[in-house]
Backbone:
């Protein structure tokens, strides 16, 4: 009995260790940031930083700008993603496999690379802008500001909605559609009253995901926003101002950002509770062949949408092989941009991306596997707390996480600022939820009897976990881990505050090259990053064995 109790207690040890790590690297930094937000320069309690924010029209305008763009991006992404997913799921599109692959690749690169690409295409001297102005006499106006941010982010995030909604539409039982037809509810009415209502839990989940990512995005608004300054950009500017950062004020703005995102999260949870049902497609949706004008329009819509979204990545790769003369593109093609890239810490950037990303990923896989097991198999108040804490980073913008870590770990005994360690910690905190959710979903599908059989044959609980449970969870773990990996190597908002020359990554090198106007070098860096992303996604598709890869 004593031996059995000892084996059982190891999971409690894991629970307490994980709680301790969350307290140290998440709760303590967030508490330190809150403390910094209510102190003046002399260390006295004050609320002047919050009064300054809410009392100054400029600061409030950055918040309203972010809300305005985020709502617009979310609405456009939902319209594009839901309509595309509906056509894709209910009708047989030619080349659907290609559409699926390109749609996934569209949303997996860093948003700021999309912004940079659209500047090359439709900026003041962009390829499309110059062509239209020179040959057709059309002035398309400025891509910068509100319209540019909405364009870039919508084309980046609508594939996320598409991926979510494919699963939702496929879970609808075809008999429900047939019943609606028999009752005279067809066409548009059936779509809005039946199909969308049955998919509402997924729509709300996709809405939250897009809203959070659009609201927290830093790179795209900074590059393409120009005078249209958004909330995350203002946090960055206040923290790293040209005349020295105002850490207290930046901390106060960060606290406001956390409150806003938490409020949106709870609103979404409340709305989701109103659609508390589950459906099972015993009679799956049968795809129809779109005919006539509708078939032509369906194919045109799907292909034009995906190709426009994917075009910037293709153009960046093309640009990386163009000649560059005194930072300007010249006629002809060469590898001059790649040579310039190699002279600008390219090897260090690639090495750091692999080391920091790889180290973060290994920790994420380890902790996600253990946390998933604790949450699913060993339910308790303590483990429920771990589940809640593990999801907090999902609603905290990356720049806020970075500022909190700098405030907490800039002095001894844990002076981590400027090291690779703090980059790894930040990336683990930010991207752990991806792998946890995927692992939890997989583990819930594994019958407990399998583990019980292993234990009854004499294996210890820990041996069963590592030799039986983890291998059975491997598909979910690896799928979540690859999504975490893609998010890690394209991370900007956290990394730009935490990096040093010793810990610079490909994403940061790309961003720095863009801000310096060395567009050829930036394109070369972005191409390497895009290739890494494509390889990661192909591995993900191979492992996940999605049915769309078989079409």
Residues:
């Amino acid at each position: 009995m004593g031996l059995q109790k000892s084996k059982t207690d190891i999971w409690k040890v894991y629970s307490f260790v994980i709680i301790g790590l969350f307290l140290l690297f998440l709760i303590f930094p967030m508490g330190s940031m809150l403390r910094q937000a209510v102190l003046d320069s002399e260390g006295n309690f004050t609320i002047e930083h919050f009064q300054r924010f809410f009392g100054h029209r400029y600061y409030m305008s950055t918040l309203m700008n972010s809300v305005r763009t985020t709502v617009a991006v979310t609405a456009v992404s939902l319209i594009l993603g839901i309509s595309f997913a509906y056509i894709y799921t209910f009708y047989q599109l030619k080349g659907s496999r290609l559409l699926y692959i390109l749609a996934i690749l569209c949303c997996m690169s860093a948003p700021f690379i999309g912004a940079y690409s659209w500047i090359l295409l439709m900026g003041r001297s962009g390829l499309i802008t110059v062509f239209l102005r020179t040959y057709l006499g059309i002035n398309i106006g400025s891509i910068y500001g509100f319209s540019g941010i909405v364009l870039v982010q919508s084309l980046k995030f609508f594939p996320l909605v598409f991926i979510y909604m494919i699963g939702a539409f496929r879970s609808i039982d075809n008999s429900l559609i047939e019943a609606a037809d028999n009752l005279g509810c067809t066409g548009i009415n059936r779509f809005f009253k039946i199909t969308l209502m049955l998919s509402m839990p997924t729509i709300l989940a996709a809405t939250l995901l897009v809203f959070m990512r659009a609201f927290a995005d830093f790179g795209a608004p900074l590059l393409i926003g120009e005078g249209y300054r958004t909330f995350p950009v203002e946090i960055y500017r206040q923290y790293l101002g040209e005349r020295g950062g105002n850490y207290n004020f930046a901390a106060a703005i960060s606290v406001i950002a956390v409150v806003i995102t938490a409020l949106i999260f709870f609103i979404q949870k409340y709305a989701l509770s109103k659609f508390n049902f589950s459906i099972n497609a015993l009679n799956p949706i049968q795809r129809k062949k779109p005919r006539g004008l509708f078939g032509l329009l369906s194919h045109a819509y799907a292909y034009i949408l995906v190709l426009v979204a994917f075009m910037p990545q293709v153009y960046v790769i093309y640009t990386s092989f163009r000649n560059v003369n005194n930072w300007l593109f010249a006629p002809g093609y060469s590898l001059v941009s790649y040579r310039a890239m190699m002279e600008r810490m390219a090897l260090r950037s690639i090495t750091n991306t692999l080391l920091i990303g790889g180290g973060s990923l290994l920790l994420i896989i380890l902790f996600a596997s253990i946390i998933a097991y604790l949450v699913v198999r060993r339910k308790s108040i303590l483990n429920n707390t771990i589940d809640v804490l593990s999801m907090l980073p999902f609603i905290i913008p990356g720049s806020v996480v970075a500022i909190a870590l700098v405030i907490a770990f800039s002095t001894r005994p844990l002076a981590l600022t400027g090291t690779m360690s703090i980059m790894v910690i930040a990336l683990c905190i930010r991207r752990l939820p991806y792998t946890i959710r995927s692992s939890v979903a997989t583990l819930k599908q594994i019958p407990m009897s399998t583990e019980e059989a292993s234990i009854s044959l004499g294996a210890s609980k820990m041996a069963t976990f590592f030799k039986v449970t983890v291998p059975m969870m491997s598909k979910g773990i690896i799928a979540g881990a690859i999504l975490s990996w893609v998010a890690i190597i394209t991370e900007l908002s956290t990394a730009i505050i935490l990096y040093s020359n010793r810990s610079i990554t490909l994403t940061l090198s790309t961003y720095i090259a863009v801000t310096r106007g060395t567009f050829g070098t930036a394109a070369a860096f972005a191409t390497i990053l895009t290739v890494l992303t494509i390889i990661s996604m192909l591995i993900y598709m191979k492992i996940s064995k999605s049915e769309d890869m078989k079409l």
